[in-house]
Amino acid sequence: MLQHTGNQFTDTTLSTAAVLANDDKALESLYTANFYKTEAFIVANSGTAEEAKDIFQEAFIAVWQNVKAGRFVPQNGSSLEAYLFQIAKYKWYDHLKAAKKINVVQLDDGPFVEAASNEEEEKYMESVQHHFKNLGEPCKQVLTLFYYMKKSMANIAAAFSWTEATAKNNKYRCLQRLRSLVVEKK
Amino acid sequence: MPPAPPQFGGGKKINTLDTNYIISADEFSSIEQYLLDETSAEQKLAFENRMSRDILLTSKVQEVKLLLAGIEKASLKERLDSYHAGIEKMPSQNNQGKTIPLRKKWLVAASVALLVAVSVWLYSSQGNKYEKLYATYFKPDPGLMSAMGIGDNYLFNKAMLDYKTGNYKKAIDEWSKLKTSTDQNDTLNYFLGAAQQADGNNAAAIVLLQSMASDATKPFYKDACWYTGLALLKQGKANEAIPYLEKSGRPESSELISQLK
Predict the structure, then answer these.
(1) What is the pLDDT of residue B112?
(2) Is B132 within a domain?
(3) Which of A115, B112, B173, B200 gets the highest tally of CB atoms within 10 A of its CB?
(4) Arithmetic mean of pLDDT over chain A
(5) What is the pLDDT of residue B12?
(6) Within a domain: B184
(7) Domain total of chain B
């Protein structure tokens, strides 16, 4: 179980476990407890609230990916919260640099750099995310419940009032539909 | 030694993602089991041996891995938007930080701490007892069978699916949107209350459930009595909870009431 004190995790190891499991409550706490700090930083450095939201969400996804891939493991004195803020800061500096709003001589990304994947893979992933949005609710629900929320097929079948075999078949059809949208557009 | 499975963001990568093939349901299932680590050690080894001999299978595994990672990321993005919608409804912490002077902040913090300490001192013993009883007896309403239909029913059922899979916040968001157009819908009000309670928002749950628990002609009358009683108990109002629990007709209600008297 996660132990919370208000909105703060008391144990970074547990919060790492929560990230790995896509624990909705824990992720929401991580989000809500840390957004305002990033927003304050970005607004104080030539940004808007809308830009803060985008940068924070990008940073959040990067943290999530890095924790899942084992690229970030909280050590003594470090935490997910600090890591999230660091990534958001670096992303904002990068944004300013790209928009030529500041002269950044050298920013050391250090341990915060995201692992590069090749361009083909990047494009494929982006396409999956793009087409997922327009996949239709039942398919989105089934895929999210299984792959993101880690619900069992029995659980999904019960929620839709399907048999387990139907649920499995529908999941495959949804995947095929998503894949065909992605592959066609390549 | 079989090659290591392709790793997204690391390990050996194929340069060109060739997707000009069909992945059958069975093949997809075995790839998925491998990627989700649902195979035995022997099956895993055998699968990796097949991959080392079959470049097409390696490509398919790599593609499915990206497909599943993309779905997970897209799902997370949707959750983040939902979290953000939630914090936008809260008062801005930034504004508070900018407008309250430091000394005043300390005073506010000290007052809050004192209030909390007094409240804890006053209510902790009884509160703990009621909390424990609530935790023992409260189980969210199992919800309704849902089928994807059209119109408002479609939207209602979509949110029912969220409710039944424990995604109470999303169900609350969706049902709240419907409430504006169909305010007197008892089913909607009942399940909105049920979702609020399951999400830990007892005060909001009581507002929705209590009116239904006061009218025996309402369709969810007995259930509304049970859950209103429990919500009041959670708030430490045992005396107010008892009449509702009595009217609920639940087999476990008398046992619970005997522990409150």
Answers:
(1) 60
(2) no
(3) B173
(4) 82
(5) 37
(6) yes
(7) 3
> Which residues in A lie closer than 8 A to residue B8 (C-beta atoms)?
69, 117, 121
What residues does B10 pair with on adjacent strands? B7
The tokens of A70 are what?
Answer: 């084992």
| B39 within domain boundaries | yes
Domain enclosing residue B253, as ranges: 138-260
Q: What is the pLDDT of residues B177-203, one digit of tens each?
A: 887 655 568 888 899 999 999 998 888
Which of B73, B92, B112 to mutate to probe the A interface, most A CBs <10 Å? B73
Inspect the interface and report whether the beta carbons of B10 and A69 lie closer than 8 Å: yes
For chain B, the residue count is 261
Q: Which of B74, B161, B166 is opposite residue A128, by nearest beta carbon?
A: B74
**Which letter, b or e, does each residue of A6-20 get, where b requires 16 or more Cβ atoms within 10 Å of its Cβ?**
eeebeebebbbebbe
Q: Give the closest residue to A155 by CA, choosing from B167, B199, B24.
A: B167
Flag if B70 and A132 touch (Cβ within 8 Å). yes
Phi (first) and psi of residue B10, to 5 degrees:
-175, 175
pLDDT tens digits along B134-190: 988 998 888 876 555 445 577 788 888 888 888 898 899 888 888 765 556 888 889
Amino acid at A65: Q
Q: Do A128 and B86 touch (CB under 8 A)?
A: no
Examine the domain organization and report whether A75 and A150 are in the same domain. no
What's phi and psi for A5, nearest 5 deg?
-120, 105
CA B171 – CA B254 distance, rounded (Å): 32
Low-confidence ranges of chain A (pLDDT < 70): 1-14, 75-78, 101-117, 185-186
ipTM above 0.90, yes or no: no
* Residue that terminates a domain, selected from A112, A143, A164: A112
SS3 B10: strand
Write down which residue in A112, A131, A157 finishes a domain.
A112
Which of A37, A64, A65, A129 has the most B C-beta neighbours within 10 Å, making it the best mutation to test the interface with B? A129
Tell me which chain B residues have a C-beta less than 8 angstroms from the C-beta of A69.
Answer: 8-10
**What's the domain count of chain A?**
2
* Minimum-distance CB partner of B87 among A32, A60, A128: A32
Closest in B9, B28, B74 to A69, CB measured:
B9
CATH of the domain at A123: 1.10.10
Residues B17 and B35 in one domain: yes
Residues spanned by the domain of A152: 119-184
- Comparing CB atoms, the residue among B66, B67, B76 nearest residue A61 is B76
Q: Mutation target for B interface from A7, A20, A24: give the one with most B CBs within 10 A.
A: A24
**% of chain B residues with pLDDT over 90:** 32
Specify the CATH number for the domain of residue B217. Answer: 1.25.40.10
User: Would you put residue A110 in left (φ > 0), alpha (ψ -120 to 50) or beta?
Assistant: left
